[in-house]
Amino acid sequence: MFISSLRVRYQTLEFNGVDIHLRTLRDNQEFSDDEGIAEALGISSSTWPLFGIVWPSGEVLAHLMSDFNIKGKRILEVGCGIALSSHVLNHRHADITATDYHPEAGNFLQQNTELNHENDIPFVRTGWADEATDLGTFDLIIGSDLLYEQEHAALLSEFLDQHAKEHCEVIIIDPGRGKHARFSKLMVALGFTHTQSRPENIEYLVKPLPKGQVLRYLC
To answer: What pTM, to 2 d.p., does this model score?
Structure first.
C-alpha cells in the first residue's frame, strides 16, 4: 500500500512504440518515514525521495534495454529505484529481478507492475554491504546513477562480483559524478574488462547528460 501522505504523479514513457506507465513521487521533496524504517537503514530525509523519481540516467538505461539482446539471459537490476528498466524488460518477458536498499522500492515496483498489467517482478530489498542473499548469479547486471559516495565503488564492485556468472556483462549508466574511475579500476582488478562510451540518440531527455557515460564490464 502507498503511504497516504505522499504526493504522487502518473506519467507514461514510450519505448519503441511501447508505453510504460509509472506512478512516481511528485517531486524530490516528498518524505514519509513515520516508523523510522528508512532512518534505521541510514537513509536520510534528503535522500529518501531519490528512489521514486525518473532520472535521466534511468531513461538512458531503459531505452538501451528496450531492444537489448535478452534471449536466455538472467538479468538483475541493481539499485532499481523506480525500476523503469525492469518494467521495460518485464514487458519484453525477460527474466528480470530487481533490487534496491530503499524500504518503499518494492511497494512502488509492485504497484507499477499492476498498473502496466504485467506479471510480477521478483524483488529483493538488499544493500551492497548486506550479508549474502539467495539472489544467485546473473548473465546481465544493469544499473543507473549508482555511484553517489566514495565508498560506493568498493561496495558495488564486490556486490557485482558476487552475483556475476562466470561469463557476465555489467552495464551501468553514470551521469558523471566523478566516482566511476575508481569503480572501474576495482572492477578490472576483479577480472572484468572495461569499456565506456557516450550515450547515443538521447533526444528524448528533457535534461541532458553532458558528462554521462555508458560503462560496460565483461567477465
So the answer is: 0.95
